[in-house]
Design brief:
InterPro entries: AB_hydrolase_fold (IPR029058). The protein is mainly alpha-helical and about 130 residues long. The protein is built from five helices and two strands; from the N terminus they run αααβαβα.
Amino acid sequence: MSAFSSWEDVFCDTMINMRVPKVFAYMQKPFMKLHTTLKYGFESFYISPKVQIKNSGERPVMIMHSSEDPEVPFSNFERIIKNAPEHAEIWIREGYHHFIVERDNLLNPENDKAYSERILHFLNSHFGN
């Protein structure tokens, strides 16, 4: 599952973060939705992470985001968890990270203790022996 709630949300949030007036940013959402629908097909119109998270049912779910992600605003994460099942495990990593794993450890995520422990605990508790 992606950390963005929908393409149009990321686009709009990014415009607002770039200090574009909110009214103008929100006016772009339908055009962004139209663009992605034409690009990815009409069956993609109703597909977005903030909607699809509802389809997880009883399956294990872990949702992670960093508090100051420079690429995908935190508001996207908030939209997803609003629709997430109660059993979803949530991890908010403090800081300015786009990839949840610390940047120095991107190629060696096992060196990021907080990240690797969180992932391994989730996997072991749901899929371990």
